[in-house]
Design goal:
The chain is of the alpha+beta class and 383 residues long. The protein has 2 domains: 249 residues, Rossmann fold (3-Layer(aba) Sandwich), CATH 3.40.50; 125 residues, no CATH class. It is 29% helix and 31% strand. The protein contains 11 helices and 18 strands. The strands form 2 sheets. A 14-stranded mixed beta sheet has the order 9-8-7-6-5-4-1-2-18-17-3-16-15-10, sandwiched between helices. A hairpin with a 5-residue loop joins strand 13 and strand 14. Helix 5 packs across helix 6, helix 5 packs across helix 7 and helix 7 runs parallel beside helix 8. The two termini are 34 Å apart.
């Protein structure tokens, strides 16, 4: 999917996000505390709601315009607090209004409309269903809803703590998955494209394991970029070990040049671990995925940034990136036309595209960052 625009309001916390429009590559910049991470969290929340991951909703409103496989959609939701009829103290939140619209030749076709009193799918009345869960997740298998359900699966924000060890209850080597050496129409194997679609929710280390075992050429591409960033690294692998409880532990390991001992995930530096998992997640993302990276520079040394930034730029035609950063190198080396300046006045978060800011449009390429810093300082002083 590709997010085109997004508005959000949290009436419980009394803040709102004015409409923000997204391109394929988006770098949110702004002073600390203005709402960059808040925007990403709001996006993550609605993607979770769309996938039926039950969350304690607050009084919220949102509208998101997006496209998927060439089709444009709009999804709107309003939630409200109501008194629980079984308790005088508890309040629960229900979805009071929900719409899903498809745009066809500039015409709006209402796929879904749910209100407090009735629900309709493609103009036909529906039975009442769970008010605390989105109709998109509840009706995921309906023909007109299924493409939207698939679109919302392609939202990738994997922040896996380095000390979190993946554990699975089956032998991963016995799992039949894709092979890039099989014939195209094989009934036994699925192929890399399908694997990426199936593995979009999988832990990064499990995705890496199957890439290494079934797609060595693809895994070598990741290793080539990684060893270019870290020339002291000779090899990368994923180790699967059987534990006493018959579960398998998966760990990323690296081998440094001149050493005979593999370095476990727990002992890899935080920057080296973050770069590797970032490369895996981006490479394994199916086309038309949305990839969120908050505070891009976290744990990264300056030596990591050029190639990782280039890797993102190279993949931005097929993927959508929404990034935040404070680091001068990141900001300077991501095209200035992708910058969005985030500001906050009282409870309202606003964004302005760099191309719409005269001071940045007229500045030379060398002066754009300086002008940006001046704008950020001015925004901070006047907030």
């Amino acid at each position: 999917m590709k997010i085109k625009s997004f508005t959000f309001r949290n009436n419980t916390q009394n803040w709102r996000l004015s409409e923000i429009k997204f391109d394929n590559l988006n770098l949110l910049v702004g002073s600390s505390g203005v709402g960059k991470t808040t925007i990403l969290k709001a996006l993550a929340l609605i993607f979770n709601v769309a996938q039926g991951k039950v969350l304690p909703l607050e009084n919220l409103e949102w509208t998101i315009d997006f496209s998927h496989l060439g089709q444009d959609y709009r999804w709107e939701i309003t939630t409200n607090s109501i008194q629980d009829s079984f308790s005088s103290e508890q309040v629960k939140v229900e979805i009071s209004e929900e719409k899903l619209i498809k745009f066809d030749d500039n015409a709006e076709i209402e796929i879904l409309h749910r209100s407090k009193t009735r629900s309709k799918l493609n103009g036909e009345n529906l039975r009442k269903f769970k008010k605390t869960e989105s109709a998109i997740s509840l009706l995921a298998e309906e023909e007109s809803i299924a493409p939207v359900t698939e679109a919302f699966k392609r939202f990738i924000v994997k922040v896996i703590p380095q000390d979190l060890i993946a554990s699975i209850g089956f032998d991963p080597s016995n799992k039949l998955v894709l092979s890039d050496y099989e014939i195209e129409n094989s009934d036994e194997f699925i192929h890399l494209k399908e694997f990426k679609e199936e593995a979009v929710d999988a832990p990064t280390v499990l995705t890496a394991y199957y890439l290494e075992k079934n797609f060595p050429k693809a895994f070598d591409e990741i290793k080539d970029v990684y060893t270019e960033i870290f020339p002291n690294v000779e090899d990368v692998r994923v180790n699967a070990e059987l534990r006493s409880d018959n579960r398998y532990t998966l760990l990323i390991e690296i081998l440094e040049r001149g050493s005979a001992n593999w370095i476990s995930q727990l002992a890899i530096s935080s920057g080296m671990y973050r770069v590797l998992t970032c490369l895996i997640d981006i490479f394994a993302a199916p086309d038309e995925s949305v990839i969120i990276i908050d505070e891009f520079e976290n744990s990264l040394g300056i030596n990591c940034m050029p190639q990782l930034t280039d890797f993102i730029l190279d993949n931005s035609p097929n993927l959508q990136f929404i990034l935040t950063s404070h680091h001068p190198y990141i900001i300077n080396n991501i095209p200035w036309k992708t910058w969005q300046l985030v500001s906050r006045t009282n409870g309202t978060i606003r964004t302005r595209k760099a191309v719409d800011i005269p001071e940045l449009n007229t500045a030379s390429s060398l002066d754009k960052f300086t002008q940006l810093i001046n704008l950020l300082e001015h925004e901070e002083q006047t907030a």
